[in-house]
């Protein structure tokens, strides 16, 4: 009987310690949903639709949220769409689209793009993505 109580206490302690970590993972879920639904890059097309178009039929999109380190404001959250695109030639490319979500103003803005780890300007990034479509 005492061994069963001790085991129960261990289980309760493990759940209590794991609970903050689980809730921390979900703390950006609403931010990610807001960014996905917003139309920050192409008017009339959600950010999620744009990311899925870039990924193509063979690619994938993973969304994540995090504290925006470059801003000294807890209300501003960095949301990233990590895109893996596989071209027709089989070449794989990694694209990251970064957005900021301001929780106070409820505004979403496109921040920057990275293609294969290199930061892109808006025009240069658009051209590079176009060329990836031809791959």
What can you see in these coordinates?
This protein has 135 residues and is α+β, with helices and mostly antiparallel strands. 41% of the residues lie in helices and 31% in strands. The chain contains four helices and five strands. It has helices spanning 2-25, 29-37, 47-55, 122-134; strands at 60-67, 76-86, 92-102, 107-115, 118-120. The chain has a five-stranded antiparallel sheet with strand order 1-2-3-4-5. Strand 3 and strand 4 (107-115) form a beta hairpin. The longest helix has 24 residues, at 2-25. It is globular, with a radius of gyration of 20 Å.
For the CA atoms, what is the radius of gyration? 20 Å
End-to-end distance, in Å? 67 Å
**Largest beta sheet, briefly?**
5 strands, antiparallel
Order of helices and strands: HHHEEEEEH
Helix-strand category: alpha+beta
Q: Give the overall pLDDT as a whole number.
A: 82
Helix content: 40-55%
């Amino acid at each position: 009987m005492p061994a069963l109580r001790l085991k129960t206490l261990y289980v309760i302690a493990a759940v209590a310690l794991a609970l903050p970590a689980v809730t921390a993972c979900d703390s950006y879920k609403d931010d990610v949903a807001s960014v996905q639904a917003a139309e920050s890059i192409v008017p009339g097309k959600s950010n999620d639709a744009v990311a899925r178009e870039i990924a193509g039929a063979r690619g994938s999109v993973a969304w994540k949220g995090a504290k925006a380190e470059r801003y000294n404001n807890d209300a501003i959250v960095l949301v990233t769409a990590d895109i893996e695109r596989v071209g027709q030639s089989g070449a794989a490319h990694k694209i990251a689209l970064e957005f900021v979500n301001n929780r106070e103003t409820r505004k979403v803005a496109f921040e920057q793009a990275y293609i294969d780890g290199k930061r892109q300007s808006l025009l240069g990034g658009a051209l590079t993505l176009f060329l990836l479509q031809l791959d």
